[in-house]
Specification:
Blueprint: E1 3-8, H1 14-28, E2 32-37, E3 52-58, H2 66-79, E4 84-90, H3 99-113, E5 119-124, E6 126-127, H4 134-143, E7 158-159, H5 163-181
Parallel strand pairs: 1-2, 1-3, 3-4, 4-5
Antiparallel strand pairs: 6-7
Length: about 190
């Protein structure tokens, strides 16, 4: 059994939701997993108590959360000594024509921080129209016009996350960590997802 940290930064809550799903899936494999918002780390927080780290961040106006960027930069040396993964949440990842743009955000982030995670995942985000004021709702409808269809009415909240892709990413990260650390999951093969 290994200990995983799933550290994330979130703007509107979808990255937190994905981090919780990753944590639950890792736990089902028999490992300890904790999801922590980068802004809510306890004073006693230390990376040394974890065997592996998964970091998640969302894109807003072309940038990841500053707190996530700073965390990676400040802890790059420790992270380089352990198994790590990074996942990005963005509307661009949900749009076939903009996936290259989403990949560019990841590449820029990794170049800026000097971090080289072992695994990378990119997932579509969500639009929380029920939480937006009039102007933001109007702006977000224009930004996401290519993604919004009749099935995805722009009046209610719309989720673009491919949960099967999140589960596959988590299984890949878990298997990589298990192989690198020489530990096996404590659960049968069919309950890994």
């Amino acid at each position: 059994m290994s200990s995983f940290l799933v550290l994330y930064g979130t703007g509107e809550g979808q990255t937190a939701k994905i981090a919780e799903r990753i944590t639950a899936t890792i736990s089902k494999r028999g490992h300890e997993a904790s999801a922590i918002d980068v802004r809510d780390r306890p004073d006693s927080f230390t990376l040394e108590v974890y065997d592996a780290v998964v970091v998640g961040a969302s894109i807003h106006v072309g940038k990841h959360q500053k707190e996530v960027h700073d965390f990676i930069t400040d802890n790059r040396d420790i992270l380089s000594e352990m198994p790590t993964a990074f996942f990005q949440v963005s509307l661009s990842s949900a749009n076939e024509e903009k996936r290259e743009e989403a990949a560019g955000y990841v590449e820029s982030f990794l170049t800026e921080t000097g971090w080289h995670p072992d695994r990378i995942g990119q997932f579509g985000g969500a639009l929380r129209f029920s939480e937006y004021g009039f102007l933001k709702r109007l702006m977000m409808k224009r930004i996401a016009k290519d993604l919004l269809t009749e099935e995805r009415a722009p009046n209610g909240d719309v989720e673009f996350t491919d949960w099967d892709a999140v589960d596959a990413f988590t299984a890949d990260v878990s298997a990589f960590v298990e192989g690198r650390l020489g530990v096996a999951p404590d659960t049968p093969e069919d309950s890994r997802y």
